[in-house]
Design goal:
1 helix, 4-stranded mixed beta sheet, mainly beta, 2 domains, about 270 residues, single chain
């Protein structure tokens, strides 16, 4: 047997495996985790919504990754998880793992969620997973369920295909229709998709069902082109009815609510629908 040739072949194999293991996301990481997955809830959040990023997988042993940090960038959310340190004993059995992180509302854009799993023993990268998702625009009503006695604001946002974003011009309320006008001036703009946001302060509105719409006049065309960009509906109510519930166990054997302490539920409304 040619022992020198066998030694050279084994050495080349070890060098190749070392190089392959240095590539993030390569299948060599299946020794640590399988079926890793990143899920967004809701799948396509609106710019006015907070959303969850949930990650999960199956680790090779019981020393599963745990959430460590989150960093929210312009169009990227970086999650880092760590496995336990040297003081934790690991059982060599495949173990499900997972966690979720609440992300505050983000502007309309294309995003990636990047998951880095770092070893608690060495500090080295064990696993990298990436998931792409979108945040969409729309019309947000503030407050979400307005009263006829409250000032109302419309917040409108979207992602423009280039840098020529709409600018607010005016708004009008005619009957049950709210119309917001915006314009794009005759400019030369960059070709990078650009998020934008404008607001229209409506003040007080009578109780009823309303239709909100936004038109954009683009002066880069001759003649200028006016198009409907966003549309949504909302309700203004005359009053809110609050529900009062008895404290748990106050009835006992007596079904009469007399003498029970009651608590008022907090107003569930917020800035987001």
């Amino acid at each position: 047997m040619d022992w020198s040739r066998l030694f050279q072949s084994a050495f080349a194999f070890l060098i190749g495996a070392s190089i392959f293991a240095s590539i993030p996301g390569a299948s060599v990481y299946s020794a640590h985790s399988t079926n890793e997955e990143i899920t967004i809830y809701p799948a396509t959040p609106s710019f006015s919504q907070s959303f969850f990023i949930a990650v999960s997988g199956k680790w090779a042993n019981s020393c599963v990754p745990a959430f460590h940090t989150v960093d929210v960038g312009e169009n990227r959310v970086r999650l880092q998880a760590r496995t336990p340190g040297p003081l934790v004993a690991c059982i060599e059995t495949p173990t499900d793992w997972g966690f979720s992180v609440l992300i505050p509302p983000r502007p309309p854009n294309f995003y990636t969620a990047d998951l880095y799993i770092v070893s608690g023993l060495t500090g080295g990268l064990l696993l990298f997973v990436q998931h792409e998702f979108n945040v969409i625009g729309g019309i947000q009503i503030i407050p979400a369920l307005p009263l006829a006695t409250e000032n109302i604001t419309l917040r409108l946002a979207d992602l423009n295909p280039d840098g020529c974003v709409p600018a607010y011009v005016s708004h009008a309320v005619q009957g049950q229709t709210v119309t917001v006008e915006a314009q794009i001036p005759d400019l030369v703009c960059g070709q990078t998709p650009t998020p934008w946001q404008i607001e229209a302060a409506l003040g007080l509105l009578a109780a009823g069902n309303y239709q909100a719409q936004m038109f954009v006049t683009d002066y880069r065309f001759t003649p200028p082109r006016r198009t409907r960009l966003l549309e949504d509906s909302f309700v203004v109510v005359a009053q809110l009815l609050h529900t009062y519930l008895p404290l748990w166990g106050c009835f006992g054997t007596d079904i009469s609510p007399l003498g029970c302490t009651v608590v008022q539920m907090p107003d569930p409304r917020g800035d987001s629908p």
